[in-house]
Amino acid sequence: MGWGGPWACAPLLMLLLLAAGGGERRRAPRRKCPIGCSCTQDNALCDRTDGVPQGLPPDITSLSLVRSGFTELQEGSFLQTPSLQLLLFTSSTLGLIRDDAFVGLLHLEYLFIENNKVGSISKNALRGLKGLVHLSLAHNQLQTLPRHLFRGLDALTHVDLRGNPFHCDCRIKWLVEWLSSTNASAELGECQGPAELNGTRLSQLHLQDFDCITTALVLFQSLPFQALAVEPFWYRGEQHVAITQPFAGRCSLLEWDHLDGAFRAYASINGSSPVACKPLVVEGRLLVVLAQLAGGSHVWRQEGASGRFVRLQELGPQRIRKPNALASFRVDGDWFLAVADSSKAGATTLFRWGGRGFYAHQALHAWHRDTHVEFLELAGRPSLILASSSQRPVVYQWSRPGRAFLRHTDIPDMDDVYAVKHFRLRGDVYVCLTRFIGDSKVMRWEGSMFRDVQHMPSRGSMVFQPLGIGNHRYAVLGNDYSFSQVYRYDARSGLFVRFQELNTQAPRSFAHLAVHQRDFVFAASFKGDTQIYRHITIDLSA
Predict the structure, then answer these.
(1) What is the pLDDT of residues 173-229, one digit of tens each?
(2) SS3 at position 7
(3) Residue pair 288/299 in contact by the 8 Å Cβ criterion
(4) pLDDT-based confidence at residue 40 (cuts at 50, 70, 90)
(5) Is 284 helix (H, G, I), strand (E, B) or coil?
(6) pTM score, whole prediction
(7) Residue 171 has pLDDT above 80, yes or no
(8) 388-397 pLDDT, tens digit each
(9) Which of 160, 218, 327, 428 could form a disulfide bond with 187, CB atoms 3.0-4.6 angstroms apart?
């Protein structure tokens, strides 16, 4: 049985028994004792003292501090009484116990800190109490306990934690784990938070009740240039990234520097006004398509020996007027390149690789000022979605007999969509639709059309990018006027919930890159430095 209930007076009873020498009455000689304390042969009882009494006999084995006025125990508070076996604090204003408060008490077996105002205990407060058998922290103001508080207490057989307003969140998970593995008995109280656990006894908690693993994006590296787009790609077994720099007039290729532990540019392709830079590996050769507003759009090829890029061809000089986005993909064994044209008199055009270059294959969606093109598969069929500033997004699907994309449907109630990005989740296809004015949306494909899943308020958004990092699914909604919002998918609700803010000026593109067993998110900024964030995992119970 513990020291609660009918044994509430057990500490004082033990004190009297120790004083009586096991029942044999004897007259204790008068000893020197601090003011406010009464001392016998082995014991001291101090009432209403303003601190840990000084000048106590060093050989006393029991000390009781009742109704004391001090508020904290400092390191080494009992170095002058190394023989203590029992120590009691009760009905005092004690609120804080610091590291090594009981250092030197190698013989202490019973520690009662009850009916006080203790709200905080340092993680090493009990360090050195190797002989402690019984610990009571009952009826204080503890909302949590520091991890590993009981580490090194190998002799402990009983713990009393009743009467504390524990907040049963991740900070208490370690205690639940310790209780399931220790041989010590325990008297436990109830949770007083969070709301869903109010009134739940600590003894009823299980490790699976705690979801304590979270993540964060932390700034890792800044690149001193503005950018419009970020395109990750694999080449020769490693991931690289191509960054479109409109003001510098070039496309930069970056790789991970294993020595410096950072990203560095290793090649660049110069242009006049690049708006998109699309790397792809065709027939074992690295190609880069550079779309420009002026000076023509071109395909560049990397030479194997030197690693330099040479211009392979001009892309559709009579067809491309004002390119805004590129998409590359393979269908039925052929490589295709789609160029979204945002000019009033232009047409989004599909090019097919012909062995020595890309050649016009099909004109799509003329006269509609397309701002983005996205390739995806819907029900196993290759598909394209074209976003336009003049009408709703249009879905095209591949026709094998005609070897062309045919219009299938449009996306309802979504005029003036700037960009479309897709992702897959549990076998379903979703799209993130970006709108500069009005709500951006997450929609799901349901057999023949897309239907609403969730609306996100967006004012000044030019990108709404889904990202899959490990087991985590995010959607980042950029903002030209405020912080960009990172949403994280919540499997229980089936919705994205606000998770984090990113301070990237006028973002135009977000992309995930995994290198050297690390995950990074690139954020292309149109008005400031392009930023690289590292994705980290955090254990809230640690």
Answers:
(1) 999 999 999 999 999 999 999 998 999 999 999 998 888 989 999 999 999 999 999
(2) helix
(3) yes
(4) confident
(5) coil
(6) 0.81
(7) yes
(8) 877 899 999 9
(9) 160
Total Cβ atoms within 10 A of residue 85: 18
Torsion angle (degrees, nearest 10) of CA 452, 481, 342, 349: -60
State residue 16 phi and psi, 5-degree precision.
-65, -40
Residues 358, 351: contact at Cβ < 8 Å? yes
Which amino acid, 48?
R
pLDDT confidence bin for 15, thresholds 50/70/90: very low
Q: Residue 46 in contact with residue 69, Cβ under 8 Å?
A: no
**C-alpha torsion sign, points 402, 404, 410, 415:** negative
Structure tokens at 326: 């590129």
Tokens 């990750």 correspond to 232
What is the DSSP secondary-structure string of 308-362? Answer: -EEEEEE--TTT-SSEEEEEEEEETTEEEEEEEE-STT-EEEEEEE-SSSEEEEE
* pLDDT tens-digit readout, 117-141: 999 999 999 999 999 999 999 999 9
Rounded Cα–Cα distance for residues 223 and 273 (Å): 20
In three state form, how does the secondary structure of 440-502 look? EEEEEECCCCEEEEEEECCECCCCEEEEEECCEEEEEECCCCCCEEEEEEECCCCEEEEEEEE
User: In whole angstroms, how far apart are CA 86 and each of 18, 44, 83, 95?
Assistant: 10, 10, 9, 20
Instruction: Tell me what percent of the residues of the chain surpass a pLDDT of 90.
Output: 77
pLDDT-based confidence at residue 230 (cuts at 50, 70, 90):
very high
| Contact by Cβ (8 Å): 501, 486 | yes
Q: Decide: helix, strand or coil at residue 530.
A: strand
Sheet containing 229-235: which strands, arranged edge to edge?
229-235, 238-245, 250-257, 262-270
**DSSP string of 32-74?**
---TTEEE-SSEEEEES-SSSPSS--TT--EEEEES----EE-
Kindly state the tokens that stand for 368: 């509609």
Distance separating alpha carbons of residues 540 and 214, to the nearest angstrom: 7
